[in-house]
Amino acid sequence: MGVAARRLNVLVTLVLVTGCGHADDVLSVDNYSCSSVPRPANASLPLTTFSDDWFQVYETANGVFSIVEPYQLQETISHLIVGKDRALLFDTGVGLLSIKAVVERITSLPVIVLNSHTHYDHVGGNWEFSTVLAIDSDYTRSNMEGFENSRISGDFSPNAFCKGAPQGSDPVSFYTKPWKQSRYVQDGEVLDLGGRKLEVLHVPGHTPDAVALLDAENRLLFSGDSWYDASLWLFVQETSLTDYEASISRLAALESEVDFLLGAHNSARVDAGRLQAVVKAFHRIRAGDYAGEGDDYNRLAIEIDGVRILTTQSALDGEQGDISNGGSGLDTWPD
Ligand SMILES: [Zn+2]
């Protein structure tokens, strides 16, 4: 059965996105505005003096600085976790301006970079750092070559900025610079920052190289794009819903051990207790007990008990696309 025919099997509800409470959820460049920033969760956090016109830096826990880029539609968040001997930067943002300059305002300790995954909006500043840890996968190695302008330019059009592109940036010719790993990390590895330990959890699904970090002593779970407080994007070719379901179940099983979830978009910190609902939503999806709403990009928006997932019929059918050139996060399925 062809892809087009399979799509017809999905129950498509004709409810506008803005008609069912998703209005604060940016699903495309066309409906992005500054009206939803700062997110309420961020507005309730202490905003630090490390902030500037582009990066808003919140202290989300003792020794944790969440670096938000709220004025581009991705609202990407990179978390700097500071120990006694070194700091770990979990993602490096979109890369339009130097995140290293921000990090150096916060700490003079040596900085290790690890990415929650290697989509363009999380690796933009990797090239600025000499110590970068990575998952050992062909997908990751492809993404280390960077993303040329044509693969990501849609997210740097004038509409992608809610108050214009930042001063000192060149959004028209912007591309993701290549970077290299210093060494590979494995699932279960513990990174010791001195007085602070982070366990690496390899949680494939959103991408093959998705990672979460558990700071057990401080009861924090850095969930990357495996979970953040908005519609979960699970529609690109490298996404595996089978892997995602296993990974989100694994993270949900840890949730009682933490107080806060720190994701990679929108809200820098929310109270724990959100992941079991995602697991339940997947059980419903697997049972075919859901309604999907199609959009102009061949995506399906599914909402189950407040959990919003943006996926595709191909992903629901268990297919993965061609990822021989990696995936920027914006390389969707061909029509
Ligand atoms: Zn992302």
Short description:
With 335 residues, the chain is of the alpha/beta class. The chain has helices at 3-8, 40-43, 99-106, 120-123, 138-143, 149-152, 241-254, 275-286, 313-316, and strands at residues 56-61, 64-68, 77-82, 87-90, 111-114, 132-135, 183-185, 190-192, 197-202, 211-215, 220-224, 232-233, 260-263, 270-271, 292-294, 300-304, 307-311.
Keywords:
alpha/beta, six-stranded mixed β-sheet, globular, 335 residues, 9 helices, single chain, seven-stranded mixed β-sheet
Low-confidence blocks of residues: 1-24
Chain-averaged pLDDT: 91
Number of strands: 17
Q: Report the radius of gyration as a whole number of Å.
A: 19 Å
Structural description of this entry:
This protein has one domain: Metallo-beta-lactamase, Chain A, CATH 3.60.15.10. A hairpin with a 5-residue loop joins β15 and β16. By secondary structure, it is of the alpha/beta class. The longest helix has 14 residues, at 241-254. It has helices spanning 3-8, 40-43, 99-106, 120-123, 138-143, 149-152, 241-254, 275-286, 313-316, and strands spanning 56-61, 64-68, 77-82, 87-90, 111-114, 132-135, 183-185, 190-192, 197-202, 211-215, 220-224, 232-233, 260-263, 270-271, 292-294, 300-304, 307-311. The chain has a seven-stranded mixed sheet with strand order 1-2-3-4-5-6-7, with helices on one face. The protein has a six-stranded mixed sheet with strand order 8-9-10-11-13-14, with no helix packed on it. Bound molecules: zinc ion. Zinc ion (ZN) is lined by residues 119, 121-122, 225, 264-265, 329.
